[in-house]
Amino acid sequence: MPIPRRGFIKGVTASLPLAAGLRATSSAAAEFRLNDLASPSKMWAELLRVNDEFGPTRLCGQPHHRRYVAYLRRQLTDILEPVGGRVFEDTFDNYPNWAATSWGLSAAGQEIPVASYFPYCTGGFTGARLPLVPATALAASGVGGGYPRADGVNVKIIPPTTSGTASVINLGTFAGTGSINWADASGKIAYVDYPVTLGSSFVTPAIYNVNETYDSGQVNQESLSIAANPTYSIQDPPDISNATNAGVLGVILGWVGISDGNAAGQYAPFEAPFSSYPQGSQKGSDPAATTGGIPALWVTEGTGTWVKDNLAGQNTEVTIALEATINQVATSTVWGILPGANYGSADDQFLVCNTHSDGPNIAEENGGIALLHVARYFARIPQSQRPRSIAFMVATGHFSHLYLGSSGDWIAQHPQIISNTVASLTIEHFGCNEWEDVETDSGLEYAATGKLEQARCYVTQPSFQLDQPGPADPALLSIVDQSLVGLLDRAAVLSGGAFSGEGGPFHRAKIPAIGYIPVPQYLVAIADDGEISKLDPEHFYDQVEFTIKCLLALQDTSAALLAG
Description:
Layout: H1 16-23, H2 40-53, H3 63-80, E1 86-107, E2 110-112, E3 116-117, E4 124-125, E5 132-133, E6 143-144, E7 157-158, E8 163-166, E9 168-173, E10 189-195, H4 197-200, E11 208-215, E12 218-219, H5 240-245, E13 250-256, H6 260-263, E14 296-299, H7 301-310, E15 318-338, E16 350-356, H8 367-379, E17 389-395, H9 407-413, H10 415-418, E18 421-427, E19 433-440, E20 443-452, E21 455-459, H11 474-484, E22 490-496, H12 504-508, E23 513-518, H13 537-555, H14 559-562
Parallel strand pairs: 9-10, 10-13, 13-14, 16-17, 16-18, 18-23, 21-22
Antiparallel strand pairs: 1-2, 1-15, 3-14, 4-7, 5-6, 8-15, 11-12, 11-22, 15-17, 19-20, 21-23
Helix pairs in contact: 1-11, 2-13, 3-8, 8-13, 11-13
């Protein structure tokens, strides 16, 4: 059931007086106008439509994703062009799209349950990425950044290995690259335990300044919540490439520390490259010296225990199967310009509102739908009342196994915009309810906690440091705080540490940045319903409202203040 919207909460934080001062010189358009925003039911209807019409999974370059990108372009064009805006595509040709079609595990005629497959594990691609070419003008598409067509000689697609049959060797627990002696399973199938806590050790509260927390308008009533999360396996993925090099025929990866329900469908780690040897990369490799990757599958902890107890070290033949395709396709970043009052003059400044279009479920990549509603809102404001131009950008390549650069590509291709950008706002993963593993009499059970997922709101700190705590930019912190007051949302406002997600490239480019990025435990899980059942319409609406309020304040805050 949707959680009812709350009224305005009159709580304040220490930074709100600064926000009041910033608003003293605001334009006439800076006041949030509720009637200019679509209703929660209309936003929810669009989410349902995208989830139903374009499939529950929209991974980079795959057919559902390409159709969704075309939808985003049509919608953004309909929003921006009637008010003088323009829409563009930065297209990357011949991207090596890997797609699993079927997978399974069996022994002595018995099917063994599989939780999910390891992305990009089998096959390979040896081509090197072509250079990115900056756009010729501020309002123009960037080009380049694609790949050559495979010719079977200089550039090669290595066909995926569909299966391996051999006995199983238990190689122990993965503790980081180099911790497993893969050679012990040469010519065999390797079993390896993977603790869910491993990746989580890289993302801890200690690396952040926690400036404030919010929950339904209540300030600082809870701490930053970072539970062990299978998504964090991207921080320390199993080195399947080294298993390929050692002659292993396949790898069974056993989750340790999460429930069966939580493990189901986890598309982790989504940032791993092709597991060929050498690993696939944008630099390419020698076709004659590259060995294609091998099948790798995830199983639950219970299944892993059964494999260790009944198959490992025995003479029983086990078959690991993973059928996949590798096809070269085009994929595009869609973006548009909404002109501000000074557009086309030397005095114009830009804000960037960005997200990504690809992902395994509607929770992961619904930022594009939110961005459309934000763009509609600002398109209704007369151009003379928009102090700054806004670039709305939906990047491809978030799930491209590192073959594309996502938002980083767009930054490299559009220096004319970036040089005039005074702040960016990244939005991802809106509307999420919190689900966690809870202890029951029968063990861990994956269930809703009854709370909203706590968003991590990253705020640039002036020296743009990473991986250690640091104070937030005062103006950005004030804008975030003022925008969160009175909303349903639950958030922790962070600075320093790791600026995760699509906002990271802007932070690294030293652009004052806000990144609003919840990280639920189902963030990268593939599910039949696209995880739509774990989202809340009112929560999604509130996070769109938060985005608009932040952009309104960013429109009216001086570049000097935004820069700290």
